[in-house]
Specification:
heterodimer, A: 273 residues, mainly alpha, MetI-like fold, 0% strand, globular, B: 305 residues, 13 helices
Amino acid sequence: MNYVNRIIAYSILVVVSIAVIFPIYWLFSSALKASQDVWAIPPAWTFRPDLSHLLSLILERGFIKYLINSMVVSSGSTLISIVLGSLAAYALTRYYIKGGKHIAFWMISLRMMPPIVVVLPLYIFFTRLRLIDTHLGLILAHTTFNLPFAVWMLMGFFREIPKQLNEAALIDGCSPIGALFRVFIPISAPGLAATAVFCILWSWNDYIFAFSLTSTEAATLPVPISGFLGDYVWEWSAFYAGGSIAAVPIILLALITQKYLVRGMTFGAISGG
Amino acid sequence: MIRKSFSPYRYIIHRNIHYFMILPAILILFSIVIYPMIYSFWISLHTWYLGKPQQFPFVGLSNYYALLFKDSVFRISLRNTLVILSVCIPVEFALGLILALLLNRKDLKGRKIFRSILIAPVVLTPVVAGVLWKFIFHPRLGILNYLLSLVGIRGIEWVADPRFALVSVMMVDIWQWTAFMMLVLYAGIISLPREPYEAAQLDGATSWQQFIYLTMPLLRPIIIVALLIRTMDIVKIFDVIYVLTRGGPGDATEVLTLYNFRVGLNYFDMGKAAAMSWIIAIIIILLAQAYLRIIQTEPFGRGAI
């Protein structure tokens, strides 16, 4: 590339990166601003860090509870999805099952369904079963999307393991379950971890289920965060702090698993670079 | 393998172990997805208000008929969804493609850093993105109007102005999802075979010719997959619009899932809501079928399914 093209290329990348990262910088920096700096126009580019909003959310407004709810719900539904998903994926990839291909396609189609299709009937069922605003209810609701995803992704990872390994394990006296736990899961550990991260990510970011099926006790972070935007009062500082609490863990997790991001986001169709 | 005792039950379990392994997943999915969906279809054939649970008259397909031919808000929400699709997808695709091609230049430094920066919005919680942009869009206290005032543009009411509300929604979508296109296209580009390019270079093809006659055709299945996934996402879009505009002002940003949600959980008109969710589901099922057909027929490099 010649000199001029190189400058054009860099300037496109820099301009886009600034446009992309600025709102997120704004979220994180405003979380550390004192109230008067949050409102300031022209903006307070330099300011004295002030942790009072973060602390008051955690200490006074029960954000610890919501944070724990988010963790419990996302890890609960991820755990169910990974355990049941790896069993099903093993059976679907290593055995002849009548209509197995249809089962797999049927599952990934479920994952692509709009949540609204499931939310309305689940709302009715959960009201009857008294599962509204419980961890179990929300875990089950998230499993509707995470389990098909886990089965589909793990099938892709398991298929990359040579057939001979499975046969060797079975000949050496492993039961199929043994082969799954001693051969498949250890070999595809990175894939398993990536699948788990995607389940966590989906569950952590979900709003429509959490908002419809919980109110206070089992509410995950997005519910109180959207609540800061009231009809009459907007709690700017509280939102910036709460939004940062929700955003930081998930962005870190995504950066760690960058390698699998594309594969997860395209339902395994394209493996990332 | 020698067994100490022979038990018929163990034998049955052993012979059919694969069915037992797949059964829990199927049972769970059946009870929390399939059964609710069938139930919702059943409701969609009735008039049913949650406030009056005893009255459950069968009305056949009239909920569907009313939505498709009589409901003006449904038509507006369908139109808005289509507008978002027809603006956001081309813009995200074009921007994503440019970025992916730039990231593929081996002679540019710092590509990893750019990539990491661009990833952040893709994973950001949509509700957080929505509220964040609502503050950014604030006419007096928002940072966007301040920055625009520096170049002489003043007083745009963004989400409160019917002319700009949908534009605002689309801006947020483009901001959040352009990097998705970039990542997918970049992954596609680096997985392309080297040989055709070497042959083309020997034949004296310019880089523009290589792009038009090699990269684009080779990338076609990946491009289609990326477009299909984004299309499904936009048909399902809910969180960001719900916090950003609630569909307002008026019907300016009303979209399918948002209207569906309102009819169901605000008006409690369950029959109509269930019918609408099935209409959305059918759109998604058609798109998902196209997706499955492509990933089955096209080879996708190492991680192909």
